[in-house]
Design a protein that fits this description.
Elements: E1 2-10, H1 13-33, E2 35-44, H2 56-69, E3 73-76, H3 82-92, E4 95-97, H4 99-110, H5 114-128, H6 160-190, E5 195-200, H7 206-214, E6 231-236, E7 242-247, H8 257-262, H9 264-271, E8 275-281, H10 287-300, E9 308-313, H11 320-328, E10 337-339, H12 348-359, E11 364-371, H13 375-380, E12 386-392, E13 396-403, H14 405-408
Parallel strand pairs: 1-2, 1-3, 3-4, 5-7, 5-8, 8-9, 9-10
Antiparallel strand pairs: 6-7, 11-13, 12-13
Helix pairs in contact: 1-4, 4-5, 5-6
Length: about 425
C-alpha cells in the first residue's frame, strides 16, 4: 500500500470553510484507490501559483514533509496543469496526482463491463492528452499504483497522434454500444412500465436501497464508487404492479468533466427516467452540501425537469427523536420527501407508496375479456397496459390491467364492468 500526502489550497472564504470536508473526501478517495494517508497539508492564499499551485515555500515544505513521513506520492485536492505537474515532480521528487487523476484511477479499478472499461479509458486518455508535453515521470507503469492503473495508461508515452487515433477508435466503439443502449431505452419508452433512476452522492446508500427494493444481492461497500456499472431490475408491488429501477454511479463534487463526457450514455438513463430517487445520507454532517452537488449535476446533464423523490437515508444512525421527527413527515401525501433506512427497511413501505402515487397517478384499473379468436388484440395489450393478472378458459382470455384512460379506448368492446376477480 502506497503512502500518500494530501494537499489542499483554499483561495476564498468558501473554500477555507469547506477545506476540512474536501480533504476528508479526498482521504476517502485515496483509501478507495489503495493508498494510506499519512499526512494532510493545508494552505490559504489569495490565488494559486502558476508554477507550483502552492507557494514556493509551501512546495519546499511539502518536499521536506514527504521525506519525513516517507510518502510515496502527493495527492492534490485540485486539478493541476501539465506545467504544474512537471514542476512539482521536479521539486518534490515524488509522484504527483491531482483529484481528477485519482478519481479516474478508482474508476479504472472498478469498471467491469466492456462499456465501462471503454468509458474509463476514454476519460483517462482525454485527461492525459493535453498533459503529455513535458511530463517528468513515466505514464506507462500499468498496474504500478495509484494514478497509473488501467487501460487508459497504456502507451501514453507515445506521440499525440497515436493517442488521438485511440480516442477516435474508442469513441466509435462506444457509439456502437450507445446505439444499442439507446434502442433498449427507446423500447422501454414505448413500454407502459415506468423507469426510476437511483442517484445520490457516492456512499449515500444507493446500492443497499437498490438491493432491498429489487430483492438483489449487489455488492455494497462504504468505499467511494463501489458501484460503477449501471444495473436495471424490476420492482413489483404485491398486486403485480411494477416498475424498472436503475442503479447508477455515485456523484461527487468536482466530478471530472472527462468522466461526465465519457459516461454520457450512462447518465442519459437518468435524464430519460420517469422519476428520480435522490438518496441523501441524512446522517452525514455534509448532507446539505452533497444534496446541492447532486442537484447541480442533474441540472448539468439535462435531468432538471424529471420528477424527484428525495430519500433521506440512514435514519437508523440518527438519535431516536430525530428519527421519529423525520418519519413523521412520511405520512404527508403531498410531500416528495421520505425518510428511510435502506439497511433495516424502515420507511421503505412509505417510499413504495409515494412512488406508486407518482408513477401511476394518471392510470386506472380495468378488466378485459378478449375472445381467443382475436390474438392481435391480446398481443397488443402488453405494449399499452401493465398486466397485473391473467386467466383463461376455452373461449376467452381475461386480464386485470393498469392503463391510462386514453389507451384503454382501443379496448372498449372488451371491457368488463365492476371487479370480476
Amino acid at each position: 500500500m502506497e503512502k500518500a500526502l494530501l494537499i489542499n489550497v483554499a483561495t476564498s472564504r468558501k473554500e477555507r470553510e469547506e477545506a476540512e470536508e474536501s480533504m476528508r473526501e479526498l482521504a476517502g478517495l485515496a483509501a478507495a484507490a489503495g493508498a494510506e494517508v499519512v499526512e494532510k497539508v493545508f494552505q490559504a492564499r489569495p490565488r494559486v501559483s502558476p508554477r507550483y499551485f502552492v507557494g514556493e515555500g509551501k512546495a519546499a515544505e511539502i518536499a521536506r514533509r514527504r521525506g519525513e513521513v516517507k510518502a510515496d506520492l502527493v495527492i492534490f485536492d485540485h486539478n493541476l496543469s501539465a506545467g504544474q505537474l512537471r514542476n512539482l515532480e521536479d521539486r518534490i521528487k515524488a509522484k504527483i496526482i491531482d483529484r481528477t487523476q485519482l478519481i479516474l484511477d478508482i474508476f479504472a479499478q472498478r469498471a467491469r463491463t466492456n462499456e465501462g472499461k471503454l468509458q474509463v479509458e476514454l476519460a483517462q486518455l482525454s485527461y492525459h492528452l493535453p498533459r503529455l508535453r513535458g511530463r517528468g515521470l513515466g505514464l506507462t507503469q500499468q498496474g504500478a499504483g495509484i494514478g497509473t492503473r488501467g487501460p487508459g495508461e497504456k502507451k501514453l508515452e507515445e506521440d499525440r497522434r497515436r493517442i488521438t487515433d485511440r480516442i477516435t477508435k474508442i469513441k466509435k466503439d462506444i457509439a456502437g454500444l450507445e446505439k444499442r443502449r439507446s434502442n433498449q431505452r427507446e423500447s422501454r419508452t414505448k413500454s407502459p412500465v415506468p423507469t426510476v433512476s437511483l442517484v445520490g452522492y457516492t456512499s449515500a446508500g444507493k446500492s443497499t436501497l437498490f438491493n432491498r427494493l429489487a430483492e438483489e444481492h449487489r455488492y455494497t461497500s462504504a468505499n467511494l464508487f463501489s458501484t460503477l456499472d449501471p444495473l436495471l431490475r424490476r420492482v413489483s408491488y404485491p398486486d403485480g404492479l411494477h416498475f424498472f429501477l436503475s442503479d447508477t454511479v455515485g456523484f461527487i463534487k468536482k466530478l471530472p468533466v472527462e468522466l461526465v463526457t465519457s459516461f454520457r450514455a450512462t447518465l442519459e438513463e437518468v435524464r430519460e427516467a420517469d422519476a428520480i430517487c435522490h438518496i441523501i445520507d441524512v446522517s452525514s454532517p455534509y448532507s446539505e452540501s452533497h444534496l446541492g452537488a447532486v442537484e447541480s449535476i442533474l441540472k448539468d446533464i439535462g435531468a432538471g425537469d424529471v420528477p424527484v423523490v428525495k430519500i433521506l437515508n440512514k435514519i437508523d444512525l440518527l438519535a431516536g427523536p430525530d428519527r421519529a421527527l423525520l418519519l413523521g413527515r412520511n405520512g404527508d401525501p403531498y410531500s416528495r420527501t421520505v425518510a428511510v433506512s435502506a439497511k433495516t427497511g424502515q420507511g421503505v413501505d412509505d417510499l413504495m407508496a409515494k412512488l406508486r402515487d407518482l408513477l401511476f397517478r394518471d392510470r386506472m384499473l380495468y378488466y378485459l375479456r378478449i375472445p381467443r379468436d382475436r390474438p392481435e388484440i391480446t398481443h397488443s395489450l402488453p405494449r399499452r397496459a401493465i398486466i397485473l393478472k391473467k386467466r383463461e378458459n376455452e373461449r376467452f382470455l381475461e386480464f386485470k390491467v393498469m392503463a391510462e384512460p386514453a389507451v384503454i379506448v382501443n379496448f372498449v368492446p372488451y371491457l368488463e364492468q365492476g371487479d370480476p376477480w
